Amino acid sequence: MQLNKLELTNYRNYASLSMEFPNRLNIFLGENAQGKTNLLESIYVLALTRSHRTNSEQELIGWQDDFAKIVGRISRGSSEVELELQLTKKGRKSKVNHIEQKKLSSYIGQLNVILFAPEDLSLVKGSPQVRRRFIDMELGQINPIYLYDLAQYQQTLKQRNLYLKQLSEKKANDEIYLDVLSEQLVDFGSKVLAQRLKFIKQLEYWSNELHQKITNKKEQLRLAYQASFPIDSEDPTIIAEVFLAELKKNRSRELFKGNTFIGPHRDDLHFFVNDLDVQVYGSQGQQRTTALSVKLAEIDLMKQETGEYPLLLLDDVMSELDDSRQIHLLETIENKVQTFLTTTTLNHVKGKLTVHPDIFQVSNGQIERKEN
After folding, report:
1. Would you say 32 is a known binding-site residue?
2. How far is CA 310 from CA 42, 80, 197, 202, 216, in A?
3. Quick one: how far is CA 214 from the chain centroid?
4. Could you report the per-residue pLDDT of 294-319, keeping only the tens digit for each?
5. Is 33 annotated as a binding-site member?
6. Among 192, 234, 259, 267, which residue carries the largest CB count within 10 Å?
7. What is the domain-level CATH number for residue 253?
8. What are the residue boundaries of the RecF/RecN/SMC N-terminal domain, all occurrences included (predicted)?
9. Does the annotation flag 97 for ligand binding?
10. What pTM was estimated for this model as a whole?
11. Are residues 299 and 249 located together in one domain of the fold?
12. Is 13 assigned a ligand-binding role in the annotation?
């Protein structure tokens, strides 16, 4: 998979931009606050329809403008696809080859990207919400059905919590309707859980291989999905039976608090190095190596599941890694994936590359190709 051309209109500090990327490695050089991260963000938004930096689409639109537009021409195998995303104050509109896509699941997955930014090093030591979002964004690109099941689960959860609150405040008294909502929640939630468990098992395989390489086989990496209720099967039917039983067991507590206490929205992901919990006992170096292994593992996992390598977006991450991790990162991506890398200096890559990159100078929303 390759992004051949990118066009931006009224996107953050880019009033108008049109760029072609014939090369596999593209380096964007410039001082901070010039637009390097905005460029990578636009590629991420083109792929996933949302930003990793903000939940407000208004922030993505130039401050004097009413809309923003991102257009990308990508190669998938032997075919070329044009993607278009329009952002307005009223929402977003996505198109594939000029045809509007009504469902998110029919758009996401056309362009697969992996973003690695300094904040991703907090994947290990950050909050459970960070790790759940990581699973949802990455798994959603591989499996559009997962996105549908997750959206239905979240919608049902919202309805159920609202009704639980009404019951707890004595504004409603029909628990039969609560039973209906519980069954719907279990139906979608069990599918979400089954897909997450399969994904984590695959991710563990690729992550452990990379982790052993980085640590010269001194460390083994294990990933453990921590559900909010006991699960010993990946079968959605069995998960559904346990899930429903646990909801019934928690009924009185839920009615008292007006909230749903178990389900995929309360789950977490744990990382173990040589059987020790890295979040609790790991050094900062081990935590960073774990995060690097997990992020890079997605490259091979996506190739396995989709048949295409994703794009890799590296946003000023080189400065956060020591020399050995920088070298391993560059060795992993060279000649494999199209990469977009931002940096304030070329010192992190000089002498460590065997491929010839395209280098672009970024200054105040203007990008100029440099002579290498």
Report:
1. yes
2. 16, 15, 22, 17, 27
3. 23
4. 988 999 999 999 899 999 999 988 87
5. yes
6. 192
7. 1.20.1050.90
8. 3-351
9. no
10. 0.86
11. yes
12. no
